[in-house]
Write a structure and sequence with these properties.
mainly alpha; single chain; globular; two-stranded antiparallel ribbon
């Protein structure tokens, strides 16, 4: 909306051109999303369901009674700010619709867990459908140009190969991010780091023609548009973390972690290199996705691995190694904050 308004008003007053400046829109979107989340969250969380604790989770009893499903508040704020600052495109409306569906799925599960809630199979199938829709929206049933580590030449991928692979990656990021939500501030903090790194790649590398040419990666003209979504969600998470810092006053719940994971997956795919998920969200994958692998192998193939390791990994650190919640948060953040730039350097310069 603002970009369109800026083009209409600039002839009458030059400074209105800021309304279609990506630098202005990214800063304004992040700040507005953070302010609205910070202001509205404590005024609305009495409407959220109360946490009932989680089986097998470390110190689950300490979260009992706290409002959960904060995503039901900050995701609508994200949607509002995104519609305000994004250039109009039907694809982005489709992405925001998928994020809304993922939030509603999570809210339903958060609200009905005491009555059985949705089964793991039902949640997995819903995630799969949403992921499939996201993959189709990204490629629009057209061939997609992607780039890979260690190869200078980009590849053109058929949509019939791209869609199942992209669907799998989106499903993985949704569930890995959901599994990471278990220590005050952890999921939101790691996701903010991932979102900011992705925003930088989309805005300053693949979205910048000269830089992308220098680094031998494809140039995506819509890269800066996707970066706006990343900055806006980072702003929402900043406002949320104000109240989720240890000891938390409100919990994210599936209503926040699932749409957040979906968005991270979409932004990785928008960067054109699916392996970026390992680079920008490696700790999320190690913490959450390895647990999914362990459970899948045990249930479907009766294979037991990592018998002495508790999953999600943050529970192992707290229960087996005696780390405090703050130590888990700070050490995981440090590993991702330091590791990602090193991996990005290797990823781009080795090519």
């Amino acid at each position: 909306m603002l970009p369109w308004l800026g083009h209409q008003l600039e002839p009458f007053f030059g400074p209105f051109r800021l309304f279609y400046s990506y630098l202005f829109l990214s800063g304004f979107g992040a700040a507005l999303a953070a302010a609205l989340t910070w202001f509205l969250l404590p005024r609305l969380w009495h409407l959220l369901p109360a946490d009932k604790g989680r089986a097998y989770a470390v110190d689950a009893d300490k979260s009992i009674g706290k409002p959960v499903a904060a995503g039901a508040i900050f995701v609508p704020i994200f949607l509002f700010v995104s519609l305000l600052i994004m250039p109009f495109d039907w694809r982005y409306l489709g992405v925001l619709s998928c994020i809304s569906l993922s939030m509603l799925e999570g809210l339903w599960d958060d609200s009905t867990k005491t009555r059985g809630g949705l089964s793991e199979l039902q949640l997995g199938l819903i995630d799969l459908v949403i992921s499939l829709c996201g993959a189709v929206i990204l490629c629009r049933l057209q061939p997609i140009e992607i780039w890979l580590p260690l190869f200078k030449q980009s590849l053109i991928i058929s949509p019939w190969l791209y869609i199942p692979l992209a669907t799998g990656l989106l499903w993985l990021t949704i569930n890995a991010t959901n599994c990471t939500d278990g220590v005050d501030g952890l999921s939101g903090s790691l996701s903010i780091l991932a979102l900011l790194y992705l925003a930088g790649i989309l805005y300053g590398i693949v979205g910048h023609q000269d830089v992308s040419q220098h680094l031998l990666v494809p140039h995506y003209a819509d890269g800066a548009d996707w970066a706006l979504l990343a900055f806006t969600m980072a702003g929402c998470l900043a406002g949320y973390l104000w109240y989720n810092a240890f000891p938390s006053q409100v919990l994210m719940g599936d209503a926040g972690s699932r749409p957040m994971g979906f968005l991270i997956g979409m932004l990785v795919l928008a960067c054109g290199n699916p392996f970026l998920i390992i680079v920008v969200a490696g700790l999320v994958l190690v913490n959450g996705a390895t647990g999914l692998l362990k459970v899948a192998l045990l249930r479907f193939f009766k294979i037991s691995i990592f018998k002495t390791v508790r999953y999600p990994l943050h529970d192992h650190m707290r229960k087996n190694l005696g780390w405090s919640p703050t130590q888990v948060l700070v050490r995981f953040m440090l590993l991702q904050a330091v590791g990602t730039p090193i991996l990005l350097l290797i990823l781009f310069k080795v090519r």
